[in-house]
Amino acid sequence: MSLSTTVITANGRRTEVRETGAGEPVVYLHGGGIVEGFDFLDALADRYHVVLPLLPGYGATELEPAPRSHQDVTAHLTDVLDALGLDRVVLVGHSLGGWRAVAFTAAHPERVSRLVLGSPYGMDVPEHPMLNMRAHTLDERKRILTNDQSIWDGRIPAEPDEEYLALRAREQGVMGGFVPGPADPELPDRLATLSPDLETLLLWGADDRLIPVGHVAAWSAALPNARVHILPGAGHLFFNERPETVELIASSANARDGARP
Predict the structure, then answer these.
(1) What are the phi and psi torsion angles at 145 (to 5°)?
(2) In 3D, which of 60, 188, 37 has the Cα closest to residue 124?
(3) What's the pLDDT at 242?
(4) CA distance 20 to 103
(5) Verdict on whether the full-model pTM lies above 0.90
């Protein structure tokens, strides 16, 4: 069963939502880019109701008013969940989506049953700085994000046209409006508010060049009860590179195979 696309109205904003399956709701929060796609989520459709809302300015989601803070993106997600009638969810966030997931959980702990963070953005780790993607060409970015270049097949035109470039530029502009910089100085304080009883799984690609795996130690220190699973040979887009790793979401409540660095 593949993700289907609908447009809902969430507190007056037209919002694109991709969904599949039935059962316990799993909400996936995407990162700063979406061109790589989310086909890997199809594997959860036989057990979960998978929901993927797009941020303002992404896809068919209306941009205005543009988000300017983590509070704004949390408010939008709250509006989406309310519109869909989802009171309590498994929350999965990848990259920038991991930062968003923490912000939402800190604001609404009663609405998150389990938390899965995949190579999340936000920590200040000077010895392992986050890469500045804007300093690299499109071809370089493709190689930075994944070890498996086949995931771009059919997703990025051989000669990107004006429409493609405009969409990507709009996404980058939206992200630049609310992301605080290469790190979020307020993130440790938000993490400190999360309940130690919240089941949390932390996933990372061992070969991540965008947000290096060296960030794991800082996240582990902030979330001492989180399970950690590092994926050998995988880059930043590990779900796309190795779709079988989506099963780690399904098994997060009972996983015991993670290893803390």
Answers:
(1) -75, -25
(2) 188
(3) 94
(4) 25
(5) yes
Going by DSSP bridges, is the β-strand pair 89-94/112-118 parallel, antiparallel, or unpaired? Answer: parallel
Please give the helix or strand (H or E) that residue 170 lies within, else none: helix 162-178
Written as one letter, the residue type at 164 is Y
Retrieve residue 145's tokens: 């994000």
Check if the beta carbon of residue 91 is closer than 8 Å to that of residue 101.
yes
Residues of the chain with pLDDT below 50 are 253-261
Angle between helices 96-107 and 70-84 (to 10 degrees): 70
Distance of CA 6 to the CA centre of its chain: 20
Instruction: Supply φ then ψ for residue 191, to 5 degrees.
Output: -60, -35
How far is the first Cα of the chain from the last one, in angstroms, to the nearest whole number? Answer: 36
Element (H, E) at 93: strand 89-94
- CATH superfamily placement of domain 4-250: Alpha/Beta hydrolase fold, catalytic domain (3.40.50.1820)
Task: For the chain, give every domain's residue range.
Answer: 4-250
Q: Which helix (H) or strand (E) holds 206?
A: none
In tens, the pLDDT along 163-212 reads 999 999 999 999 999 999 999 999 999 999 999 999 999 999 999 999 99
Structure-block tokens of residue 178: 């609310």
